[in-house]
Amino acid sequence: MSIRYTASIRSREPVSDDQTKWVGLQAIKWIDPAGKERTWEAADRKTRKGEVDAVAICTIIERPSSEPHILLVSQYRPPVDGWVVEMPAGLVDQGEEGKEGSTRAALRELQEETGYGGPSSGDGSDGRGELNVLETSDIMANDPGMSGANMRLCVVKIEVADDAPEPVAQPEEGEFIEKHLVPLKGLYLTLQEMQRKGYSVDARLAHFAVGLSIADAAAQGGKGAFITAFSSTGATPRS
Questions:
Q1: Whole-number Å distance between alpha carbons of 98 and 139
Q2: Which residues cross the membrane (predicted)?
Q3: How far is 157 from 127, CA to CA, in rounded Å?
Q4: Which tens digit of pLDDT belongs to each residue from 153-187?
Q5: How far apart are CA 178 and CA 133, in angstroms?
């Protein structure tokens, strides 16, 4: 597996708030617990249409003859000048209110970025499988030390036949997205292997992967379980 596309930074320069479309910079005046007035600089999205900015999708793919996989994507992120492995995600549109609206946004973004998530043909010919939404979370802070941006997490399970074709993504103009099917077991170690191949990893995905490793070690028990959980060989993702 290797990075398929090429992209690069041409320049970086400061901008004022009236020059930006997506993100604005704010100076927040606040009083700390000791009564002292302070200033906090924060960057917030200008695109929020309701109570939540975005939704991420934790997608578990199950096939009869293989272990559960998680569906991930990678795309070039100019702020870090690199290809970042992450869960599929996207902005919530006007009118997509509450958890139901966030769920609709999640399935739309999942279909655009990966081909999964849309209505199935019912005969398996489109490869989308049988989809079940397991959970849509409450609103969560995204990066609270830097931004007021927030998001929900939608957890879905998709059952796919062994011989089902790979569904075709429907990216928007300007999106260059790779998708990766990665075994859930050993996810953290697999992400480390992807980093060695040149990818960056979204911290939220890495935290999720560490949590899986800790839960697996706790279930196994024994004095060396936690050490073993972080020292095994990572699995090879399907790209």
A1: 9
A2: none
A3: 14
A4: 999 999 999 999 999 999 888 899 999 999 999 99
A5: 23
3-state secondary structure of 157: strand
Nearest to 149 by CA among 13, 20, 25, 33: 25
Residue 52: half-sphere exposure toward Cβ, Cα within 13 Å = 28
**pLDDT tens for residues 11-60?**
999 999 899 999 999 999 999 999 999 999 999 999 999 999 999 999 99
Euclidean distance between CA atoms 172 and 174, whole angstroms: 6
Report whether 155 contacts 141 (CB < 8 A). no
Is the Cβ–Cβ distance between 106 and 57 less than 8 Å?
yes
Tokens of 208: 């999720």
Please indicate, yes or no, if residue 11 is contained in any of the structural domains.
no
Q: Which of 204, 185, 57, 72 lies closest to 131, judged by CA? A: 57
Question: Both tokens of residue 72?
Answer: 């991930």
Residue at 8 is within a domain: no
User: Which range of residues forms the domain containing residue 187?
Assistant: 47-229
Q: Look up tokens 């990678």; give the residue.
A: 74
CATH code assigned at 85: 3.90.79.10
Bridge partners (DSSP) of residue 26 are 42
Nearest residue to 152 via CA among 56, 73, 87: 56
